[in-house]
Write a structure and sequence with these properties.
Helix content: 55-70%
Number of helices: 11
Largest sheet: 6 strands, antiparallel
Strand content: 5-15%
Structural class: alpha+beta
Strand order of the largest sheet: 1-2-3-4-5-6
Order of helices and strands: HHHHHEEEEEEHHHHHH
Radius of gyration: 35 Å
């Protein structure tokens, strides 16, 4: 029995290693294709590009490992069934579960290794990628600008005809288009020469332009048919440009961890609690501010408890009668005021009251809208932290679930090699991956709980693995169309007899 376990384990390990190498090779080329615009033609040597791809490899294992487990399990058990090795095992009294036992132990250990990898190695690689990009921007600031085409930055586009000098820091014939809040090009800057300067420890590139012109469109409120613009000549013009790729994330220095992908489980758990408390504190402070601005829930004056109860009882009837008479006399007046509160003001004050009310309402709505956008961003960061925390557990658990999907599926289809098993593995993995991507996006926006967004793809594969394992144990194939046709044939026969 030990010889059989070693044989099954060796076959699975061989298929696992070969599949991992092939899939990693494919995903690396896909990464090169995605980052070709950021790497090619920017004066980077092969060593820097190699480091960049090497630091990206741990991040690729999140996609490669589950697919590798699925493919290798289909290949192993498919080849066993195709070569009638399963028939010999069953004739010897060895069931499918007993044949899967050594691989179950191996995949469980692999899940633990995957969890350690996701908790320690991937966050470290993310920090390395960030530092490498930052060093590239500091040592070669011209890598952010490409010759002959417009390079997009945050709120601007830059085009240069030629780069020269040390680290391509000097530019010739610079054209810059600046965008306003409506994402329209309203400002154009042209200069004959320019220089890129980067400082140590800064994420900004300083662009010094010389001998140029400045053009800006001016919005005309009186006459919309006229299109005035402002024009100015300059000898020297200095601009600060945020380094691309780094502005998309709130990153700091290497010694500090700032994004959810750069954190391990202990740091994520602490930051989730702190983010939750900070969000509640901000909301409470804003609600109190709005209450004070609107005038809602004004506290009542404290009651004087020093008055003797006997005196209160004596004055109670007189006070009640006085209030009742006051209410009766003021009822008509109150009804008229409620009908039109503006009637109590003179005509020249009505416009001031209406304008003041309009400005107050506009200010309140603007404050609420701005705070809403701020809280949406804060809660998105909060959801991303929860999603990253559960993704580390879900990645390890997915390797075990996909093994129980691939192993019985290979025994059912009875096909080895890289033909049909590869197609089936890719289809199942695409279903698993796209469900995870869509669920993750919904979780980030708060449409579903982040924990569900991390686990939904794995939980969908769980009943499929149970179903396939049961079918393979009972020596039954997949559900075919013959079952459906037989059902309708029997149904028509019963109708004819009736």
């Amino acid at each position: 029995m030990r010889i059989l376990d070693r044989y099954i384990l060796s076959r699975f390990v061989f298929n696992f290693i070969s599949s991992f190498v092939i899939l990693m090779f494919i995903f690396i080329f896909q990464t090169i294709w995605l980052f070709i615009d950021d790497l090619a033609g920017k004066g980077l040597d092969i060593v820097i590009i190699g480091k960049f791809l090497f630091y990206l490899m741990p991040d690729l294992t999140e996609k490669v490992l589950p697919l590798t487990v699925l493919l290798s399990s289909i290949l192993t058990f498919g080849s066993f069934a195709e070569n009638y090795e399963f028939a010999a095992m069953k004739a010897s009294g060895i069931s499918l579960q007993r044949a899967m036992l050594p691989l179950i132990i191996f995949v469980t250990l692999l899940g633990g290794v995957t969890f350690f990898f996701a908790n320690n190695i991937i966050p470290l690689s993310q920090r390395k990628i960030y530092n490498l990009r930052r060093n590239i921007a500091q040592v070669k600031p011209a890598a952010a600008v490409t010759e002959g085409v417009f390079s997009d930055f945050e709120g601007m586009s830059i085009k240069v005809d030629e780069k020269y000098g040390d680290n391509d820091r000097f530019l010739k014939n610079v054209i810059i288009h600046l965008k306003n809040t409506a994402n329209k090009n309203t400002t154009a800057i042209k200069a004959k020469t320019g220089e890129l300067i980067s400082g140590e420890g800064s994420d900004l590139i300083q662009l010094v332009l010389t001998d140029g012109n400045y053009y800006e469109d001016v919005q005309s409120k009186k006459n919309q048919l006229k299109y005035p613009f402002a024009h100015a000549d300059f000898d020297t013009y200095i601009m600060n440009i945020e380094v691309p790729e780094l502005n998309n994330e709130d990153l700091e220095e290497e010694r500090d961890i700032s994004t959810d992908k750069m954190k391990n489980i202990s740091r994520l758990s602490k930051d989730i609690d702190s983010l939750k408390n900070d969000n509640f504190r901000i909301i409470r402070a804003f609600s109190k501010n709005m209450e004070s601005r609107v005038g809602m829930f004004v506290p009542l004056e404290p009651r004087d408890t020093t008055i003797i109860k006997s005196k209160e009882k004596i004055k109670k009837d007189s006070i009640a009668s006085a209030k009742l008479s006051a209410l009766r006399t003021n009822k008509a007046r109150q009804d008229s005021i409620n009908a039109d509160i503006l009637s109590i003001f003179p005509d020249w004050q009505k416009i001031q009251v209406l304008n003041s009310a309009k400005n107050s309402a506009t200010g309140l709505l603007g404050s609420v809208s701005g705070k809403r956008d701020e809280m949406q961003k804060r809660y998105k960061i909060y959801n991303m932290h929860i999603l990253s925390l559960h993704n580390k557990y879900a990645l390890a658990f997915s390797c075990i679930i996909l093994f129980f999907v691939g192993a019985p599926l290979g025994a059912i289809i009875r096909k080895g090699g890289l033909g049909l098993p590869m197609v089936i593995a890719i289809i199942l993995f695409l279903i698993y991956y796209f469900i995870g991507v869509f669920a993750g996006n919904y979780a980030k926006e708060g449409n579903i709980h982040p924990m569900l967004g991390a686990w939904v793809s794995t939980l969908i594969m769980l009943p499929l693995g149970i179903f396939l394992t049961k079918r393979a144990t009972e020596d039954k194939g997949m559900v075919s169309f013959g079952v459906v046709t037989d059902f309708f044939k029997e149904l028509f026969k019963k109708k004819k007899k009736n």
